[in-house]
Write a structure and sequence with these properties.
Strand order of the largest sheet: 3-2-1-4-5-6-7-8
Distance between the termini: 66 Å
CATH topology of the largest domain: Rossmann fold
Low-confidence stretches: none
Structural class: alpha/beta
Mean pLDDT: 95
Bound molecules: 1,4-dihydronicotinamide adenine dinucleotide
Number of strands: 14
Helix content: 40-55%
CATH superfamily of the largest domain: NAD(P)-binding Rossmann-like Domain
CATH class of the largest domain: Alpha Beta
Largest sheet: 8 strands, mixed
Shape: globular
Number of helices: 18
CATH architecture of the largest domain: 3-Layer(aba) Sandwich
């Protein structure tokens, strides 16, 4: 395959920005430009204050961006100049957002690939030489064909395009680690001579730092579906253990013990068997919905219902968690205060998209409780925006919602505390102090991943663990 000297990313979000940074860091011989239409975001990537809070990312970004390697020119650039970047690049990686469609056919289910299609159109119109166009965004299965048609029908005379699929599997919170040492990289191509060659060319870039056997090439549509399938299976595991946690709470079995028992089976394995308030994040829900939509389009209603059940269990886990705490207060939360520790959808990230905490807080506010929230990374403005609409509708809500600067502050005067995100800092909170500043009945509620009931009970707390009956 041809050697590559210039790569352009379009979309400097979580995925595009982080991936571009690692690529530029690992491939000093390649010039990497990341284009975003959002000038503020582009600027943030050029600063010390990156738009994405990931451990180690700033160090990775700085080397290629600021030219920190001796005798090495800068090879990571952030810009809003889309046309010029497209023209220079041999490979263009599209990593724009693909949210769930809000209106029209497929609304609420289908991934909206219109932003991606606009970008592809822009590539077709700007390119003056042959390009490899890579779908990195998560897309509906079959999008590769649409992309190819747009490129073909709008290309300048003589300009040829190859379309590849290269879905991203990084997990927020461990993005840098995942990008440096991925379990696998998928590259999907059309099964033509030029398609295989394009896949090889792109694979050679990854092979700079990833063992060749972890770079898997396959047909374009398998690759597109594999991304949805991976997220559906990961979410399914979470919903499965949470569905079992409901049975545990009702029968006296303990989900931690059950998880250990089933996870010891080498066919099942121990990962992702931690009962929780449910999954959040920008991807699982929307990707499963996209899969459900595909099944419905194929008239596979029973298959659609099978995947959709994962989402239903996830919703139930949140609502029944609120109900469990409320029942502890004789179903009356007026005058009661609940502290929520953690607002991001998981630990080590500041991302709140689809975070369980949003629904949990809304649930308690709806019941009439006061809520105080603390998260180590999420700004007050973000929390208010995420809760926004309902706050406005409900008069006097502002008095019942406080955003705090520490876990201890949030717990002061609270009747109950719910650990919504399993941050290490909550595990090592000064729980003795918290016991003193909280108000009876001092209920602590959360996952066994973060809370040790024996220790907490000895301090005078009433402890409620997900998946464990309280006698
Ligand atoms: P994001 O919303 O953080 O970033 C998307 C970026 O694209 C934004 O900065 C936006 O300004 C930019 N953009 C939109 N339209 C544009 C245009 N016309 N020209 C230039 N830039 C444009 O999204 P994120 O989280 O990075 O996700 C991107 C894709 O990757 C999605 O399809 C998502 O499903 C997928 N993905 C996300 C993962 C995650 O953990 N966040 C993991 C794996 C895949």
């Amino acid at each position: 395959p041809k050697s590559v000297s210039y790569i352009c990313f379009i979309g400097a979000g979580y995925v595009g920005g982080s991936t571009a940074a690692v690529l530029a860091n690992q491939c000093p011989h390649i010039q990497v430009t990341v284009v975003d239409k959002n000038a503020e975001r582009t600027k943030a990537w050029q600063s010390e204050n990156l738009p994405v809070a990931e451990t180690g990312l700033l160090d990775i970004v700085k080397v290629p961006r600021d030219g920190l390697r001796p005798s090495q020119r800068k090879n990571l650039h952030f810009t809003t100049e889309v046309e010029e970047s497209i023209q220079q690049a041999e490979i263009i990686i599209v990593s724009v957002n693909t949210p769930t469609k809000a209106v029209g056919t497929g609304s609420g289910y289908l991934l909206d690939s219109s932003v991606l299609e606009d970008v592809v159109m822009c590539i077709a119109r700007s390119a003056r030489s042959n390009k490899i166009v890579v779908e990195k965004s998560t897309v509906p299965v079959g999008t590769g064909e649409t992309v190819r048609d747009i490129l073909r029908n709008n290309a300048h005379t003589g300009v040829k395009f190859e379309v590849l699929s290269n879905p991203e599997f990084l997990a927020e919170g461990t993005a840098v680690q995942n990008l440096l040492q991925p379990d696998r990289v998928l590259i999907g191509c059309l099964e033509t001579k030029s398609g295989f060659l394009a896949a090889e060319t792109f694979a050679s870039v990854y092979a700079t730092w990833i063992p060749r056997e972890r770079i898997i090439t396959m047909n374009l549509f398998s690759s597109e579906l594999s991304k949805l399938a991976a997220n559906a299976l990961l979410a399914q595991r979470i919903s499965s253990i949470n569905a079992l946690s409901i049975i545990c709470e009702a029968t006296g079995a303990d989900i931690q013990q059950v998880a250990k028992a089933v996870g010891s089976d080498s066919r099942i394995g121990p990962h992702m068997l931690r009962a929780s308030f449910g999954f959040g994040g920008s991807c699982f829900k929307k990707d499963i919905r996209s899969l459900v939509y595909l099944c419905k389009c194929l008239h596979l209603d029973d298959v659609a219902a099978y995947w959709e059940a994962i989402l239903n269990i996830n919703e139930k886990q949140k609502s029944r968690s609120v109900a469990r705490i409320v029942s502890r207060f004789n179903n009356n939360m007026n005058g009661k205060k609940i502290a929520i520790l953690g607002f991001a959808f998981k630990e080590n990230t500041g991302d709140t998209r689809e975070s369980c905490a949003i629904d949990l807080v809304k649930g308690f506010l709806h019941e009439g409780a006061s809520v105080s929230i603390y998260d180590p990374l999420v700004q007050e403005s973000q929390i208010r925006e995420d809760l926004g609409i309902d706050c406005a509708a409900d008069g006097g809500l502002d008095n019942r919602l406080t955003i705090c600067q520490s876990g201890e502050e949030a717990c002061t005067g609270a009747h109950g505390v719910l650990v919504a995100t399993n941050w290490d800092t909550f595990r090592s909170l000064d729980w003795d102090h918290v016991a003193r500043v909280m108000t009876y009945p001092r209920i602590v509620f959360g996952s066994s991943a973060c809370l040790d009931p024996n220790v907490l009970e000895s301090m005078g707390f009433t402890v409620e663990i997900i998946g464990k009956k309280v006698w």
